[in-house]
Amino acid sequence: MVKRSRIIAFFLLVVLLGGMMGTTGEKIVKDIKLGLDLQGGFEILYEVKPIKEGEKITKDVLLSTVSALNKRINVLGVSEPRIDVEGNDRIRVQLAGVKDQNKAREILSTEAKLTFRDVHDNVLMDGSDLVEGGAKQTFDDKGKPSVGIKLKDANKFKQVTEKVLSMAPNNVLVIWLDFEEGVDSYAKEVGKEHPKFISAAQVNEVFNQTDVSIVGNFTVEEAKQLADLLNAGALPVELKEIYSTSVGAQFGEQALQKTILAGIIGIALAFLFMLVFYRLPGIVAVVTLSVYIYLILLIFDWMNGVLTLPGIAALILGVGMAVDANIITYERIKDELKLGKSLMSAYRIGNRGSFGTILDANITTIIAGVVLFAYGTSSVKGFATMLIISVLASFITAVYGTRILLGLLVKSRLFDKKPHYFGVNPKDILNIAQVTDDTDVPTKFARLDFVKRSKLFFAISGAMVVIGLVLLFTAKLNLGIDFSSGTRIDLMSETSLTTEEVKQELNKLRLEPKDIVLSGNKNEMAIVRFLGVLDQNEISQLKSHFKEKYGIEPNVSTVSPTVGKELARNAFISVLIASVGIIIYVTVRFEMYMALAAIVALLHDAFFIIAFFSLTRLEVDLTFIAAVLTIVGYSINDTIVTFDRIRYLMKKRKVKTADDLKDVVNKALQQTFGRSVNTVLTVVFTVVALLLFGSEAIRNFSFALLAGLVSGTYSSLFIAAQLWFVWKAKQLKKGKQKREQLEVEPEV
């Protein structure tokens, strides 16, 4: 009897979810904060150094520096900046949405140490003599912009002016900002058109007052900036840039638009695939995946998280991976239907049988995500955060959401005699009266003998490893500045660029590039790399020059040799820790041989990606490591599904010989082959969409994912299970020989 109330409940629940997402989704999206790579801005990692020899950088000094930096950021008017202390002597500053990046960098790094000196560079007064917050932009008696400051002690200023007056004809009071001892001098600067000192006023009388005006060739904006700097206070330390990245606003806007478009296309293709291949459960998958996307954005908003470009990529990739959980469940239900079970029975067994597999697969991906978060930089942390949230959200929606919605349809009894609604051909359904515990699930791949050709697969992989090693030793990797240190500039123009044109423009700035690579559909973008690290002034000139030339502010990233080595070391450590963590987990949940086989497959996949990048000369940067670890997590998912089926079949059958073992492995691979292909297709849809339509900034990341997906599917089907079979067969043979020996010994 059809229970229409269940159908009505299903539609009401779908309408309720759709209404909730429709009415609140837009507000959630607007509230989510965008990272600097999506709205423009910059990130700088400073090494904190003492100003005077012998001084130590303590926690209090770092906190005092953070406080001073916060005051300066307030001057800039940047909303919600992020300043983090890292280690014992580093501070990371992230400013998203800042309009004038050159000005912001200058204000942040300027020590703002004001000194009053004579013409012989002797200090007469300094910033400690100023009243806190007493500086303001004013105008002098000629109407020119100036800076008014208030002194603590009028008598001290009287003594200073008396001393300078007595030095006639050199009765000049020179005011400096950030005077460098042993480098700067009045004598060197006085003849220059634009001297480094702020002003040099002739003292013709003694002043006994606290209100002093600093007069120079200021604009109103410059005078206001100096007053704000003085009010913010001098930095108690010296800040040295050791890592920086800046993104122009137009770059960020374009990256956001492109990646969202890629996401829509990739997700739409995944949805279409689920509808065509799984039909009714596919409709449920579309609903639960839509809720999954909404839930991720909601959680991210609650966390007050910052959405970055890699974060959006993780969200889009997460949809493809979330489909995996649906496919595992749906394939188990289809298997039970093919064995002649009723729809209700197939639904219950399928849900129960798939839960452990989904849990194991998700935990291994979370291990990779946690390692990425622990060892990654800010953009990689954004990717890792989104990846972890995606896994958790997909578990909730794909497991519990699917059970509720699909359960309503199944329990309505409307589809009891309609297996085609679940993607099952009635011709493939066995007579349940003839089904026993040893009956295998009918599959299109029953004739494939995976184990028979295991030596061929091992040989192919061995050859790939040898070729990869030769490539690595000869061509090596095309390391980006993240690992080799240096400077990278991303230029963008509204018209096509040429290598010669870009080189000529750089020569005007007296800059010699290491290489120039054109990109974009019409060569409207150029990637320029330098061996050395450009300083703040060079970056400022470069940004101003190309913004004036092309109308678009370029992206500039710098990595010092110290940080480059650290990033390379952390990348190696992160892959190692993730691998060890997965070995331990798979050993506990399965067995040691399965764990070892899984790790060999993972190393195979990681090496394949590395060899692919060496062959194609694609740049290896931090997102490459994120891609490798993502594939490590994803590939183990596929392997776990196969091992789970092997374990299931081992419990059903008595395995005594190598032939029995071979049959189990073959059956497991035959039964999971379709699921592996379907899963990789849904993820490939999203990755290819990112590759074709996404931002140039994550193009290499997408290439690495695509290469890893192909390799991961191959290794799960043709390497991991076969390796386990070889090792397990040897163990079985040794056990048999030992038993035979024990049986013979009593007779002797």
UniProtKB/TrEMBL annotation:
Domain Protein translocase subunit SecDF P1: 65-121
SUPFAM superfamilies associated with the record: Multidrug efflux transporter AcrB transmembrane domain
Alphabetical UniProt keywords: Cell membrane, Membrane, Protein transport, Translocation, Transmembrane, Transmembrane helix, Transport
Entry's Gene Ontology molecular function annotations: protein-transporting ATPase activity
One cellular component term from this protein's GO annotations in UniProt: plasma membrane
Predominant location category: membrane
Pfam family, one: SecD_1st
Residue span(s) of domain Protein export membrane protein SecD/SecF C-terminal: 240-403, 553-729
Entry's localization field: Cell membrane
Annotated transmembrane regions: 260-278, 283-300, 312-333, 354-375, 387-410, 456-475, 567-588, 595-616, 622-643, 677-695, 701-727
BP term (GO), one: protein transport by the Sec complex
Membrane topology reported for the UniProt record: Multi-pass membrane protein
Family: In the C-terminal section; belongs to the SecD/SecF family. SecF subfamily.
Summary of subunit composition and partner proteins: Forms a complex with SecF. Part of the essential Sec protein translocation apparatus which comprises SecA, SecYEG and auxiliary proteins SecDF. Other proteins may also be involved. Forms a complex with SecD. Part of the essential Sec protein translocation apparatus which comprises SecA, SecYEG and auxiliary proteins SecDF. Other proteins may also be involved.
Function (record text): Part of the Sec protein translocase complex. Interacts with the SecYEG preprotein conducting channel. SecDF uses the proton motive force (PMF) to complete protein translocation after the ATP-dependent function of SecA.
The name this protein goes by in its record: Multifunctional fusion protein
Organism expressing this protein natively: Anoxybacillus pushchinoensis
Lineage: Bacteria, Bacillati, Bacillota, Bacilli, Bacillales
Gene label: secF
